Amino acid sequence: MTSQITVERSPGAPADPVRRRFVQGSAGLVLGMYLAPLGAARAAQAAKGADFRPNAFVRIGTDGIVTIYAKHLEMGQGAYTGLATLLAEELDADWESVRVEGAPANTELYKNFALDMQGTGGSTAMSNSYEQMRRAGATARAMLVAAAAERWRVPAGEITVAKGIVSHASSGRRAGFGELAQAAARQSVPAQVRLKSPGEFGLIGKPVLRRADGADKVRARALFTQDVQLPGMLVAVPAHPPRFGATVRRVDASKALAVPGVRAVVQFEGSATRFAGVAVLADHTWAARKGRDALAVEWDESGAYRESSDGILARYREIAARPGLAATSKGDAQAAFASAARIIEADFEFPYLAHASMEPLNCVVRLGDGQCEIWNGEQFQTPDQRSVADYLRIPPERVTIHQLYAGGSFGRRASSTADYVLEAVAIARAARAQGIRAPIKMAWMREDDMRGGYYRPMFLHRARVGLDAKGRITAWQVRIVGQSIVESSPFAPVAVKNGVDITSVEGLSDLSYGVPNLQVELHTVRDVAVPVLWFRSVGHTHTAFTAETLVDEAAVAAGQDPVAYRRALLKGRPRHLAALELATQRAGWGKPLAPGLDGSRRGRGVAVHESFHSVAAQVVEVTVAADGSLKVDRVVCAIDCGIAINPDVVRAQMEGGIGFALSAALHGAITLKDGVVEQSNFHDYRVIRINEMPRVEVHIVPSQAKPTGVGEPGVPPLAPALANAIFNAVGVRVRSLPIRTPLAGVRA
Prior knowledge:
By secondary structure, the chain is of the alpha+beta class. The protein folds into three domains: about 30-220, Aldehyde Oxidoreductase, domain 4 (2-Layer Sandwich), CATH 3.30.365.10; about 225-305 and about 360-445, Aldehyde oxidase/xanthine dehydrogenase, molybdopterin binding domain (Aldehyde Oxidoreductase, domain 4, 2-Layer Sandwich); about 320-350 and about 455-730, Aldehyde oxidase/xanthine dehydrogenase, molybdopterin binding domain (Aldehyde Oxidoreductase, domain 4, 2-Layer Sandwich). The strands form nine sheets. Strands 12-13-10-20-17-18-19 form a seven-stranded mixed β-sheet, sandwiched between helices.
C-alpha cells in the first residue's frame, strides 16, 4: 500500500503548491525568522478564523495541532524530529500534537546558515537551526501568553505553559493552544525572547521521543516522489548512454511505442553535467520501463570517456611520484625523515563508490506557461531552483519546489548542477514541444541509479611516517591523488584554497594528532570524465582510513598499545580523549577476547576521528576463520556531538553510519571497463546483508555545548578500526578498500 497526493487545479490557475502560502504581505527578518504580517493585516486574518502563524516555521491551528515547517530534508536521518524538538521545546508544546511538513523552496526564509543557501548537507541541520528554531518556538509561546494575559486580565508573568496548555494558577484559568490561536495572531511580535537553559529542557536531550516521521512511515502516509499522482500524469523512464559523454545518434522507437501503455518517446538534451538521452512516457512505471528496454538507440561515442579503473589507478600511481600542491606544511618533514630511525611507507587505494540509497532518483515536474512546479526529495533547494530557472529562462520565484521525503541520499541528491532534476525538466520540456502538456514523473531504475555517475571519487594516497628511536612520530607525509568534488561547482570560492580542494584532504590536512612535522600534498586530476559528488562524510571516507591505520602501524612498530599511543598524541584534544576513553572502556579494551573456535582467530581494533565538528571513536571486534573469511562481531561507538537533541536519533545515526561504512569497507566498488560502469544492481554492488551486521553499542559523551554533526561522523572510523582489528587478529595489513576476502596470507 502506498500513499498518494493528488493536486487538482482549475485550468489557467497559477501553481499553488500544497500549504506553501502560509506567509504573505510585507515582512522582514527578525530573530532569524521571517515574520508574518503585523497589525491590521494580522487582525483581519484572525477575524477570518485563520490559524496562528507567527513566523515561517510554525502554524498553530484552532484544533491545537502544531505544524512545524522543516527547512531541511528528511531522508531518514531524523531531521524532522530534531527540528520539531527544538521549536516544541521553547513553545512548550504537547509532543503528541506536533506535526512536521517540509518547507517550500525559499532561500530568504529557509536558508541554511552554514551553507549560505537553502539545502541539507554537511551534517549541519541541527547546528545551524539550534537557536533559530528555538527562537521561533519562544516567539510563538510569548504571543500565546500575551493573548491569554489580555483575555484573562492578569500579568503575563503569572502565566505558565506546559504541554500545549496555557495556565494561570491563582485564578484556575486554562486554555489550549487552539483556543488562543486567533487571539495570539493579533499580538505584536516580541523583539526579544528568553530561551531556556539546558537545565530547563523537557524535550531536548530526552532519551525516548516519538520520531516525527515515524507514524506516517509505518502507516504508509509518508509522501515520497513515487507517491505523487497528478491528474493526467505520465511516467518517464530514460535511456542513458553506456559511456559518459556519449550522445544520441538515432533512435528506433517502433517497438517501444508498441508496448501497451506507452504514449510517447522523446529525445532530451544533455550538458556537460547531465546525460543526453531518450525517455519513454507511459501511463505507469512498468510500461515505461518495458518501453525503454524495447528502444533501439544508436549512440554517438566519439566524445565518450573510455578509460578503465585499472588504467586510472595506474596513472594515479605515476602522478603520486611527483610533489603536489601543499595542503598543509608544518615543520620540516623532509629533514625529519632524513634523521628518522624507522620509516613506514604505504600506498592506500580507494575505489569509486555509489551512493546506492534505497530510493533510486526520481522527480515530478509540471510545466506551465512561464512557470515550473517540482515535487522532489529535495536536498539542495537553492541550486535546483536557480538551475531550473536558468534552464527555462524564467525567474527563480516561478519555480516552485515541494519538499517530500527521500528514501536516503548520502549526498547524491545534493547536486550543485541539479543534474537529475534538470533531466526531469528537460524531458518535460521535450514532451511539451511534442504537444504533450501532462505532468511528468521521471523514474530511474536501480541500474540507471548505479550507472548514473556522481560517485565518491577514486583516490590514491602515498604515505610515509617517520619514527624516532623511541617510536615517536617525527614526520608525516601523504600525497593524495584524485578528482575534485567542488572545483567546478559554486562552492569552489570557499572550498578551493590555492588550488587545493579542502574536501579532498580534510581529516589529514587538519590531522588531530600532535605530529611536529606534517606535510600533506594534493594532485587534482582533471582529465578523468567520471562524474563525482559528495558522499556521506566526504573526504573523511578515505583520509580517516589512512590516518588511523598509519597511527596503528606506528604504535605496533613502537611496541606500544594502540590506545595508549593515541592518548599521547592527543594531548590538548579533550573531546578526542573523552570519546576514545568512553569507547575503549565500554568495549573492555585491554581485556582478552574470547578465543576463536575451529582454528579461527579474533582481533580488536580502534580508531578515533573528528569530522563535521564531532568526534567519534569506535572499537571493532572481528573473527577471521582459518580459510581467511571474515566476520565482524561487535562495534562499540562513542560520539561527542555536543548536546544530543534526540539521543535515540543520535544512536540510530551512529548505527546506520556503521552499517553504511561496513558496506563500503567489505563490498563497495564501482569499476569501469573501457569507460563502461560494470556494476548495475545490488547483486554486483553489494550492501551488507542482515547476517553481516554486527552487534553495535553506541554511547554519547555528555555535553551541554551546541550541537555538532551527527549524520556523517559515524562513518569514518569504522573501516580503519576494522582494518586494525584484522591486523590484530592475523597480522595482515589492509592497504586498499574494499577488503578482499578470503584475506591473503591467512591459512590454517
